[in-house]
Design a protein that fits this description.
The structure is a homotetramer. In chain A, a hairpin with a 4-residue loop joins strand 13 (about 310-320) and strand 14 (about 325-330). The first copy, chain A, has 2 domains: about 5-150 and about 340-350, Rossmann fold (3-Layer(aba) Sandwich), CATH 3.40.50.720; about 150-330, Dihydrodipicolinate Reductase, domain 2. The first copy, chain A, is globular, with a radius of gyration of 20 Å. Chain A has about 350 residues and is an alpha/beta fold. Chain A has 13 helices and 14 strands. In chain A, helix 1 crosses helix 13, helix 8 packs across helix 11 and helix 8 (about 150-165) packs across helix 13. In chain A, strands 3-2-1-4-5-6 form a 6-stranded parallel β-sheet, with helices on both faces. The two termini of chain A are about 10 Å apart. Chains in contact: A-B, A-C, A-D, B-C, B-D, C-D. The interface of A and B includes residues 194, 197 and 295 of A.
């Protein structure tokens, strides 16, 4: 029997992605969407400025947009809520929802670093989900909260995981070139970015530097421990691309490694924590390695694995850092947001946590 | 009395910049332009697809495009030639010109690493010009060749010089976001770059990694020695910006330095090798530091110092690399090509080498 | 049994579209691709710079690129060739192919106006195909040539047909905003179009003005007669859009018509010449009318009907011209080129002409 | 002695242009800038997100942003206010200012069609300024209001004036391709326009259709009469260009005219109403005609005449409309807004109306 799910903040770019991924989902039944007051009561098709490349699913066109009201959500017997709300709103709403027994899968950046809140990039750390038992106990909640990582971090850590497993990462230097959708539907005015780039995204570098170490951390008995074996330094930039975050990654390993060895580690992804679980949104290959000199490219490669694969290219030795350097690309509103959110929910179902 | 100068390859983007900078130059008289066969004999205004933001200087509109013919150049009593030719053509022509007594200031990438060829970023290493005496002796030439560095390297090394002087750089990690003009007028088809970026520029990373160490090297008695105190690792990317190369720079210093100290070093640029020489093209401030969180930006800041200043922003401690990280921007066809070429020629005149 | 087909000029943008549409076609078996000499002998996947939004079909990846050789095509027992060659090459090759018995469906602009060559936009003038009997007789060919119209004209005439049928068009004024793909893969350098538009496309206006009248013309017993009841004046412009030609259309009718009447005529498309034929590539609705004030838009609407529908919006009375004005959008490399080419071939099969 | 002037709404894109044009103006002393409440009290340099291609004038950097307060403006003994406010705000403020004796030169769209308010494109209809005597009498004001036309209309009517004078225009069909700056600094989100265009600009077509006829109208004794000899039908579109509105113009004249005749009329502009007045902002040539097939282009030509000239190209016979068709380009925030505003103020000074 399908779980009843809701998307909170369904008209923004991440909300639209959630709606797009959930409308025909085999395990979930999307029965509720909420959005800001000025469109409450409208049909979804009239409330949203749809920018997804595929047409809006028939099923959601007629859904009536609801206000953000915890009691309504409970009355509607929702099992899982997907949160695409601004941080400020999420901070208040999420604990209330968890208290009332809901499973909250959230893309908002609040609480991501709390040790009893799992920050999940499922292939990397699906095992962290078990911390929700502690979370419930600690906080006296019937439900729980699971967090989707920052978009850039989700893409980056997928590539770091097999390298760390096999070669022991010491330091990571990453310079990102991030897409416009990462700032939301109306976040970047065209007058500011045409023939230009913007070398700053508020809070982004800190998120990459800290969340990476939590995602690659370990689950102790009552909390998640940050990985203290490596550190990350980031510089984040906005470029004129619609979707797809790119990044140049330099990894210090303590030794120069053979390029083929690295590619093998990435492609095999031995310790993929969700392998064989049969989660519908899991990509066949979490990491795809391209060998052409000029790939991946955002417009051509962002939809690999339905937007859930990260594509790596230009793997080369780095003799300066004693390690390896490469270029990575992922779809920021799918792999880096809604897609990973849906994958987390699938994991939760599979683990019988809802 | 003004020196008679020629621009070889005057219709490309760098050639146009040379023409633009030389047409009203106080020390130089632009009397000759050459271009490819199919436009030889035409007036410059008809031969060129002008894309510079300022109108074409009156004076050059009526110049007749000449073929690339060494004898003609000699007959015309040219003192200095500015070379904006493809590497393959430059490789043959430049030694011939130098043999016949011409001063060759070249933007082409051939011979840049030869120890008796000065690779000049004047504020950084104007003293390397003295190697031309060795060059003449070695090669039996009456003239000589001086090289403009790779565009990205010219911008990067201007910022590295004061940091290396004051803090001893150990390693540099640089990820560039380079403009379309760097690939030439027709180098990047619009279908390949719209809503996209290209994570590869042939040969660029190697140039940044090696040329940086030559520019910051020292002039021994008969050759220029590479600086072996630091190393550079680079990742280079093309983005949809018309002019202006941007780069995220991470510098390992062996210690975390205070941001204000770094800014002071950059702004003061104590060991500027051309300070006080009165070279017309030298910018008042080789490095401008911006303190806003989101600057510099290519469209807004590339013309600082008439395109000859490098603009640095987002200077911040890097505790991971034990050093500092920052963002730098320079105009690639001015500071990174024609402007630095003209500045080199001014240095040559000042030093009475022509 | 499937017809054996070949794509000539398979690596360009229109060639890629043909390959994409034919690889899994129910009636056609794509067995041969040709391209320019420098890639002959390579596998298609290595020969092409694929820019289509969908992955390259598995089936064609391994096809070996052949040279353009009429005898080889005959030997391979090809039934239909799809031509995406430059006009100059097509001019020589197409008559040879037709002479040797092949059915030639061509996107090249040569011969489009010859009275015994059908210029087909199937919903509008599928009946013109019958002129091929005259063509064969006239020219002594075993095969024949059918032409795909100019891209802008194909889109425009689809919208003009129902209006002309119902309201008698007198004059049409059209200003187009055409996409980059219309100039081919490398036709528009990015330096020329970023923050810009180009108000000229060679030969385009003439094609729109004349081809429209042939497509809406009538098949006399031995030739196609131009429609002399209306005239078209065009102004064509290139804008920074990847795919999708847009156009502002002003139609003088001799009377102001009711907007709803016009919309009804467009949506019903009463005299659709291929209705009910079951051609696989025919869109369910050749014309889709949007009522929002700001639609259609190229990025959001170009894939309607798998790229085969034309989307019309902003239908409004034009009291100045005594008629109607509207905005129309079509996918230029599908509806305006390869898609219409495949639809023509389907018509030819249906009519047992191959 | 210089007139004291203020810019109301000085931080928007048109406000910035006003500031840029007025800072070093020979006749005006910019002593006051106002902006929205959240930046009142800040220095201008901190209050504005400057996007003009030239650096901010020194002089204005230190101006303190004032609130919009009619009494303050009077106290400051301002002679002329330049209004770059939203229509809703302007509707209230402008009559108050005029009542209190100020000369109001306004870019806001309210009141543009009232018969005692001059709507000025000075080269075309400087004589309409005399209606301000009627306006004062009618309304009992000490000051008066003069309006800058809609941006597209200002550019269009400059080209229509000499054609109407010489050839009697009957109908005009115009399709515009308008720049992003026309929607204000943050008006068009980048996610909506990249790889796209938007075929709708609210209210724009109506403005072009009606304002054109007022600008080319005549001053009767107590009002301005619309020109009823010709009509205009417009279709307006937003494209991805930073600055510069382009338009395809089709003009029905009742006869086909010789291209050279048309070019002569445009270049001579015989009845230029401000010729010889010595207004500092008047361009030497109001209309520049280019003969290359592919010019003008926004990025290359928008700054002609410091942004005050309109550039026309592709003049060709239109046998369908019995007239002429051409392409026109003008700088929308200079010729189409602030530049024309300053030119109007210069006219007012010259006529001793302030």
């Amino acid at each position: 029997m399908k779980r009843r799910v809701a998307v909170l903040g369904a008209t923004g770019i991440v909300g639209q992605r959630f709606v797009s991924l959930l409308a025909d989902h085999p395990w979930f039944d999307l029965v509720m969407v909420t959005a800001s007051e000025k469109v409450v009561g409208k049909k979804y098709t009239e409330a949203v400025k749809w920018v997804i490349e595929k047409p809006m699913p028939r099923k959601v066109e007629e859904l009536t947009v609801e206000p953000l009201d915890v009691n309504r959500i409970v009355e509607e017997k929702i099992d899982i809520v997907f949160v695409a709300l601004p941080k400020e709103v999420a901070t208040t709403v999420e604990p209330e929802l968890a208290r009332k027994g809901l499973v909250v899968v959230s893309n908002a950046s609040n609480m991501r670093l709390e040790p009893d809140i799992p920050l999940l990039n499922p292939e990397v750390n699906a095992d962290h989900i078990d911390v929700v038992e502690v979370q419930r106990r600690n906080r006296g909640w019937d439900g729980f909260i699971a967090k989707v990582p920052n978009c850039t971090t989700a893409i980056l850590t997928l590539t770091l995981k097999p390298l760390h497993d096999e070669f022991d990462i010491k330091r990571v230097v990453v310079a990102s070139m991030q897409s416009l959708s990462g700032a939301g539907l109306t976040g970047v005015p065209s007058m500011f970015i045409l023939d230009n780039l913007i070398p700053f995204i508020e809070g982004e570098e800190e998120k990459v530097e800290t969340e990476s170490r939590k995602i690659l951390g370990t689950l102790d008995k009552d909390k998640i421990l940050m990985n203290d074996k490596f550190k990350v330094t980031a510089s984040c930039h906005r470029v004129m691309v619609l979707e797809g975050h790119s990044m140049a990654v330099f990894v210090e390993l303590g030794r120069v490694v053979d390029v083929e060895e690295v590619i093998k580690a990435l492609e095999e992804f031995k310790d993929n924590k969700i392998r064989g679980m049969g989660l519908p949104t899991a990509p066949e290959k979490p990491i795809i390695v391209r060998r052409e000199p000029d790939r991946p490219q955002p417009r051509l490669d962002r939809m690999e694995g339905n937007g859930m694969s990260v594509v790596v290219g230009r793997v080369r030795e780095d003799k300066v850092l004693n390690g390896v350097k490469y270029f990575a690309l992922g779809h920021n509103t799918i792999r880096g947001a809604a897609g990973t959110g849906v994958l987390i929910a699938e994991l939760i179902v599979k683990k019988n946590l809802v």
